[in-house]
Amino acid sequence: MKLTLKIWRQENAKAKGKMVSYPIDGIEGDMSFLEMLDVLNESLVAKGEDPVEFDHDCREGICGTCSLQINGEPHGPDRLITTCQLHMRKFNDGDTIVIEPFRANAFPVVKDLIVDRGAFDRIQQAGGYVSVNTSGNTIDANSIPVNKHDADDSFNAATCIGCGACVAACKNASAMLFTSAKVSQYALLPQGKVEATDRVLNMVRQMDLEGFGNCTNTGACEIECPKGISLENIARMNREYLSASTKG
């Protein structure tokens, strides 16, 4: 295939970025989207030009770092996949593909297509964990029975990889799907109920401090999420937050 790539180039967070067009050919349908970018970068380096900076790690749909906005869609035109799992067979010979970083004030551009998603880390650090005292006081594995449906819902929430597609898809750049998934995976389990009140209050507070917007109720986040995280988690987080706010 011969393609035209329109790629966002930006030297750093303070520099003014712009779209730059790159013609490319010899692209096979079995190539992944990132492999296609590798081919482009090899040609740019051969010509003495700076390669396009993009983030990636596992290339197996697990880490979420490969997040790109492709023709206006987080992770591109396919569903329930990350960018590294997107194959070029989804495009046609002669297509123009617009490639941008995820757009949100809370996700500042580092360079080109790389954004800083440290805001998600700080939300997680605010309460997305279960505290266990293991300093000389180790205990046997927890033997509390857990309802099968609750366990399944908790596991499904825990599959969130924190890629940020929900934020990129939302016109308010809301992080409620991400935050609610991290709240839900513990709120559904007895082990997580001990710190439930502080957890939801602290994580929502941190989410607001990071500058994310509120939920739009349009559902774009669930549609674009590569792991299919359900909107039910947002409803659950709202209930948890209301309950926690009325205590004490």
UniProtKB/TrEMBL annotation:
InterPro entries: 2Fe-2S_ferredoxin-like_sf, 2Fe-2S_ferredoxin-type, 2Fe2S_fd_BS, 4Fe4S_Fe-S-bd, Beta-grasp_dom_sf, Helical_ferredxn, SDH/FRD_Iron-Sulfur, Succ_DH/fum_Rdtase_N
Highest taxon listed in the record's lineage: Bacteria
Cofactor(s) named in the record: [2Fe-2S] cluster; [3Fe-4S] cluster
Molecular-function GO terms, alphabetical: 2 iron, 2 sulfur cluster binding; electron transfer activity
Residue intervals of the 4Fe-4S ferredoxin-type domain: 151-181
GO annotation, biological process: aerobic respiration; respiratory electron transport chain
Domain (2Fe-2S ferredoxin-type) ranges: 1-103
Pfam families: Fer2_3 (PF13085), Fer4_8 (PF13183)
Family, as annotated: Belongs to the succinate dehydrogenase/fumarate reductase iron-sulfur protein family.
Entry protein name: Succinate dehydrogenase/fumarate reductase iron-sulfur subunit
